Structures are given as structure tokens and as C-alpha cells.
Amino acid sequence: xxxxxxxxxxxxxxxxxxxxxxxxxxxxxxxxxxxxxxxxxxxxxxxxxxxxxxxxxxxxxxxxxxxxxxxxxxxxxxxxxxxxxxxxxxxxxxxxxxxxxxxxxxx
Length: 107
Prior knowledge:
By secondary structure, the protein is α+β, with helices and mostly antiparallel strands. 42% of the residues lie in helices and 26% in strands.
């Protein structure tokens, strides 16, 4: 894998998201119980998206799953197709936060 500054920055953002949440991230290379499968592949239902970043130019969501403490990075195409309402809820939440922040700054 070629490590460039954009990739390293994405990795940094990913780590910051993880540190700021009380979740455990699945690591297919070290976690034997999941055998490298993402939440969708394990038959889990998405709970919510807790972050978004770009890795190697591709948009990915950091996703929580119902009944599971692990999180996964899910490509946005897969999330849009398999759980569109969860994606919409995430963007709506971000939109409301931005509007609130702008209102506070202009007051």
C-alpha cells in the first residue's frame, strides 16, 4: 500500500474518531472471531454512522452495528445501497450541527 499524505491524514482522522467514541474497532488482521468480515457480511444491522473520511480517495463511513461493540469502515456505495436511511440520518445530523454552529457564530 502506498502511503501518501492524504492517506496518513485520513488515518489520523479515523484514529481521532475512534478515540472520541466508546467503541471498539474491528481489525480483520488481528481479530480472529470475525474472520475479516464487515458487519454487513456478518449479517449485522447498522445502528448509526459515527464518522466519515476518505481513504485512498474513496469515501468511507465508520459504522456502529446493533448488538455489537465493534465498528467497521464501510464504503459509501455499500452503505447507500444497504442502509440509505442511516446515511440520510447521518447527513441530516451533520446539517443541523452546521446550521446551529453558524447561528451561534453570527449571534
